[in-house]
Amino acid sequence: MSGTTRIWSPVDYSKDGKQVDCLRLPISTDTSAYGWIPIPIIVLKNGDGPTAVLIAGTHGDEYEGQVALMRLSRQLQLHDLRGRVIMLPSLNFPAVRAGRRVSPIDEGNLNRVYPGHAHGTATEMIAHYVTEVLLPMADLVVDLHSGGRSLDYVPCALVRGGKTLSENRKLHDLLDVFGVPFAEFTDGTGGGGNTTLPAAAAQLGVPVITAELGGAATLRRAGSDLAEQGVLRLLKHLGMLPSCEVPAPGPVRLMNGDNMDLFLYADSDGIFEPMVDIGDEVDEGQLAGLLHSIEAPHSPPTEIVFVRRGMVAFKRHLALTVRGDCLCGLLEDVEPSPDIRR
Ligand SMILES: [Zn+2]
Fold first, then answer.
1. How far is the CA of 42 from the centre of ligand 1 (A)?
2. What is the CA(60)–ligand 1 centre distance, in A?
3. This model's pTM is above 0.85
């Protein structure tokens, strides 16, 4: 165990074999003075080779990735593997157990506190462990998300652009191999900006594929299947599962979402009635939804209108809305820029 992290584990990352254990996140409460919270971890290592870190449960109410990693942790066989796979199906375990986006311990959003703090809150300690211990070992990180309780998403993959031409080409290849139908290079606009796992990984030059696989705090089998097959293809692509039989990826449509005009927000409180569905192609000026005021039921609802054309990548799933809530987001088509075109 390196450095300053307070999280510990019997897992030895340098050891060959399959290890099923947990990270121990220290906690000190009225009822458990010297306690720890278990964060499940599965490590498979078979000789030399690349290291893939597979994460789900960064947000607790996003289920497709959690179940995909549970399946993979049972399915992957040591003798098929070259290198090391580290799986954390429920990284922010307190949030997963509570079925919440944020941790009930500190209200921390794990994808908003990177690079974390060794001596911070529970959520900050988890982020710090990833930054300090896991990222330096990783050749690839896959972080599986969905829209959570408040949003519903089309299956899409997001990467942060690399520092060099060759990094961006490699990321583009990884998106094609992962095979989730829509993909985006993003700097975190509208989301977590520089407080996310991909932002921390970018500092170390470690590629991260983030996937949005569904949402509405439910489990869509199509999303978990995409995640499972996409991860297997990536491991095969890296030479880690040379004999793996996995279906070829479908086409990947490269899109852009880094423009605040693509995001629609509520400018007043109300009940949101969406007029579009995820995956719909929409035009500038088209009605996205209505916002009905509960204080003024007799007044006409506020019309929410798209200001650009694009495809509906996500929409708000919860009806009850307050001013400032994000209602809808678009992705727009983009030609691959010269720096990522192969
Ligand atoms: Zn998420």
1. 21
2. 8
3. yes
